[in-house]
Amino acid sequence: MIKMFVMETCPDCEYVEKQVAGNPNFEVIDIGKHVRNLKRFLDLRDSNPAFDEAKKAGDVGIPCYVLEDGTVTLMSVDVGLEPRPENAGAACGIGGGGC
Question: What is the spatial distance between Cα 24 and Cα 50, in angstroms, rounded to a whole number?
């Protein structure tokens, strides 16, 4: 099962979350629903180099995917999902881009 860290208010997360609705191969973990989920995500983000570029850009690093073998990726295509088009409007970043 692929763990997918998301947040309800993130447009990139919303886009990919719709693609996995009802798919038993994905466990969707909303980091905004409970502090326990946020702590799980922060532990991962603080210790995994997959987040280095996102952190440099000032992004949170969601959506994030943890594969069954423990591999972490921020690329939706790596898990067979279509990423939200870059020119699709709203974004999470203070500067108007990224999540």
Answer: 25
Question: What kind and span of H or E run contains 29?
Answer: strand 26-30
Whether the model pTM is above 0.85: yes
Owner of token pair 């790596």? 78
DSSP character for 99?
Answer: -
The number of residues in the chain equals 99
- Lay out the sheet containing 64-66: strands in order across: 26-30, 2-6, 64-66, 72-73
Q: Is the pLDDT of residue 64 over 70?
A: yes
Domains and CATH numbers, the chain: 2-79 (3.40.30)
pLDDT at 93 over 70: no
Sign of CA dihedral 53, 59, 64, 66: positive
Q: Do 5 and 41 touch, CB atoms closer than 8 A?
A: yes
Per-residue pLDDT band at 75 (split at 50, 70, 90) = very high
